[in-house]
Amino acid sequence: EQLRKFLVGQANINAGKTVIFFFSKSNKEGQSLGPPVKVSFNKMTIEKEGFQYGHSVYAETLTDDFCEKIIRFSQELNLNVFFSVPALFKNTRRHDDFMGLGCAFLDDVPAVLSGDLFSKGFRFGDFPFPPSVVIQTSPGNYQVLWNFKGFLPADDRYQGPKPSFLPGSSKHRKELFNRMLRQLKKRLSGDPGGSNLNQIYRVPFTLNHKPKYSPAPEVELLHSDFSPDSRINFGEFYAELLMPELKNHYQDNFSEVFSNLRKNNDWMVMDNLLGWGEPAEDSNRSWTANERDLSAARRLYEYYKVPRETIEKIIQQSPNRQKGQT
Q1: How far is CA 287 from the centre of its chain?
Q2: Three-class secondary structure of residue 246 per DSSP
Q3: Helices in 33-169 by DSSP H: which ranges?
Q4: What is the full DSSP assignment across 277-300?
């Protein structure tokens, strides 16, 4: 029942569906033996039960019996079982099957942060957003998710509503999501590396069959909250992640201006001032450096009433100007 409630919640934030993936146990050298579709006994067993290597899970049809089978496969067949963190069009992890995001996520949470995670009621230091989900994949190793208020589609093939604040093209929406995940990882772990949009996490209550573990530990669901009131506004979340970048680049010279941007969750202007951001129209064309600076300058002048001379000083320090662009 606990697993069913978790998977229903995960499916609901991802436009009604998540995907379960089955992988065979790794060998002693840590190399995966491949998905069960390549292992005849496992393939026959899970297909007899009506499963595939990548198996769609729909919120409205999920049953306790289905979840019991997943747990049993992990225990009896030594299968590592994962769920898709983002929404996918098909039951694969190909790049072009990425549909969109219902949450932000962080893998391999550093041990230095895990103390905060538990001592402060599932909060990371001064980061203002408590996680929606915390999964312990093995003792001391955690995967964390923050659920958004609404689904954020990345691909134009998605037929549901598309938030007006997102860039117009699929290409630019994926770039935005990658930036958001990169800033999250940098903010909380100090690692500037990117995250895979098609991320998969271990299913709670199954076993972690990495070869270094004997016996295999159970994947624990330490915390989950899928209630509507707990969900996070994307703009507020992303604006919070951009503040350290602005302060670092501009050396706190315009703290009052940037504080107003943060207070209004004006992440689009913040993006522009960091040399990022794309046009709203449905086009793969990227903005030029001048277009980004002019868009930010116009917003600061017309909406925030920032004096012209202050805006000129900000733009002179923008990443685009420092690269020698006029």
Answers
A1: 25
A2: helix
A3: 40-48, 64-76, 111-119
A4: ---SSS-SPPPPHHHHHHHHHHHH
Quote the CA–CA distance of 274 and 292 in Å, as a whole number: 9
Picking from 232, 235, 234, 260, the residue whose alpha carbon sits closest to that of residue 246 is 260
Give dist(CA 290, CA 54) in Å, integer.
45
Q: Give CA angle at 87 (83, 93), nearest 5°.
A: 65
pLDDT in tens, 309-322: 999 999 999 987 76
Distance (Å, whole) CA 298 – CA 319: 17
Rg over alpha carbons for the chain, rounded to the nearest Å, is 22
Answer left, alpha or beta for residue 282, where phi above 0 means left and psi between -120 and 50 means alpha. beta
Taking phi first (over 0 means left), then psi (-120 to 50 degrees means alpha), and beta for anything else, what does residue 127 get? Answer: beta
Q: How many helices (H) and strands (E) does the chain have?
A: 11, 9
Q: Supply angle C-alpha 135, 10, 217, rounded to 5.
A: 25
Give the pLDDT confidence of 224-254 residue by residue, as tens digits.
Answer: 999 999 999 999 999 999 999 999 999 878 9
